[in-house]
Amino acid sequence: MDFYRSILKQTDVSLMLAKHVFFSKLRQPNANMVLSPLSIQKVLGMIAAGSKGRSLDQLLSFLKFNSIEELNYVSSRVITDIFADGSPYGGPRLSVAHGVWIDKTLSFKPSFKQIMDNVYKAGYSSVDFLHKADEARAEVNKWTEEKTNCLIKEILPPGAVDYRTSLILANALYFKGAWYEKFNASDTKDDEFHLLNEGSVQAPFMTSQKKQYFDGFKVLKLPYEQGYDRKRCFSMYLFLPNARDGLPALLDKISSEPGFLNQHIPLDRVKVGKFLVPKFKICFGIEASEVLKGVGVTAPFISGLTEMVDYDQDLFVDKVFHKSFIEVNEEGTEAAAATAAMINKGRTARKEVDFVSLSD
């Protein structure tokens, strides 16, 4: 399997998902959005591991994998290689975690448990959804807070967990990196920040006189401190449309052309004139089930999750909750994301019964 090509395809999936969230959920013209498609993709991968039939086919198609084996291989490499913590080497601090909460009356199918263990390195908790739903919700929220370094305190809102819940599958990501060349805080000044509705507000902007990595239509690369990690190099890429109201069109272009992001990574440092980068902190949350249905992932919300537990009822995805956080300042970036999928009971799977009427 070509891991590099798979990552390129996953980037395309991320951008497409971001576009759909932007156009379907960001209805307020002055609202801000931060999203981690990777976090959502990891939870979808966990769901795919417990699916079959049409549900599995739709998940593989959306995630651009040819088989569940390919999906598991790439997920494992992302977790162990890309998200390995770089802080011991002087690089960014990274972490990825997966959790599974299962009703105490249920037991995992061995094949699903094996994937959760070997691919996702998941932790487990047996809970009482029937009688202690609120306690289970609190446990998931506490886990999320711990795994995101207290940046995301509540992934599951009140009422998200009830007696119908059978499993909860969750992912949490954390990143903290220092700029390779830090900004001077004394140079940060308020300036005009243009909004999508053609208005503007005053916002703090960081600046620098040093050469920067730029591409033709304003793509800025800001590298993070790498330390002694010679295998990976993390950077932030800022895409700036030429037109003040050009963000929707730029996002549509980025997400519609395969490989666009990789083809527009700045490679050379150039001298720039006026150079201002906003200093900001954003938190954003969505219930993503309608977004996923809008991109063709519909079957898992109906049925097909038959490979997770030994159970005589069909399971389905009820809701998918997602939250992301990012803070960018003169020192660097701190970010976190979490996604939790609620797996509920469906209708009882009825066994075939013979009925033969015999008469003399």
TrEMBL record:
SUPFAM superfamilies referenced in this protein's UniProt entry, alphabetically: Serpins (SSF56574)
Family indicated by similarity: Belongs to the serpin family.
Protein name from the UniProt record: Serpin-zx
One Gene Ontology molecular-function label: serine-type endopeptidase inhibitor activity
Residues annotated as domain Serpin: 20-351
GO cellular component labels: extracellular space
Listed SMART domains: SERPIN
InterPro entries: Serpin_dom (IPR023796), Serpin_fam (IPR000215), Serpin_sf (IPR036186), Serpin_sf_1 (IPR042178), Serpin_sf_2 (IPR042185)
Organism lineage string: Eukaryota, Viridiplantae, Streptophyta, Embryophyta, Tracheophyta
